Amino acid sequence: MNITRIFSDERGETHFENIEIPLVDQGDIGFLSETFEVKKLQFRKVPADYDFDFHCAPQKQYIALLDGGVEIETSQGDKREFQTGEILLVEDVTGKGHKTKNLVKKERTSLFIYI
Predict the structure, then answer these.
(1) Which of 56, 79, 80, 109 sits a CA distance of 20 to 30 A from 92?
(2) pTM of this structure
């Protein structure tokens, strides 16, 4: 399973990194990763006009996009688009942060999983 990590370097610049989570064939129940410890789970809904300027993540967390797409821009101007079903690992809790905006003017829901 592929996810995108968003993190800050020692200079405070934000970057993207592609990560692959290995999955193991478990027969009839499908392919599973190892388990991960988590702290909390939170549901989120943002309005159609969501466009949040530079900010750091409030904590290290996975974000699962449940519906709607998002564009994320790093502090260095790199932009990527993410769609429904994609998962992000957001770790830029310090530094210059990132920008986030909806791809389409439509209410969007996601799931925050604190780690």
Answers:
(1) 109
(2) 0.93
